[in-house]
Amino acid sequence: MNLRNFFGVSSLNFIPQTLEVCFRKANNEKTPCYALAAWIRKAETETHKIETKPFNKEKNLSNHICY
Fold first, then answer.
1. Confidence band, pLDDT 50/70/90 cuts, at residue 25
2. Which residue of 15, 18, 46, 54 has the fewest C-beta atoms within 10 A of its own C-beta?
3. What would the 3-class secondary structure string for 27-47 be?
């Protein structure tokens, strides 16, 4: 798999636009933004493989309303 397919972009020039999360990381200069972007993208692709039941707003939210 090439990097463009992995990141879901048509050009590697678009990868910096996917790195917004890097600005929310802890003050750890040793963690490269591209490494974080790769882990986040891997998590995104893995979650698409998870089968779930359809979301039912009425049912799901009614169980979690605090009064």
1. low
2. 54
3. CCCCCCHHHHHHHHHHHHHHH
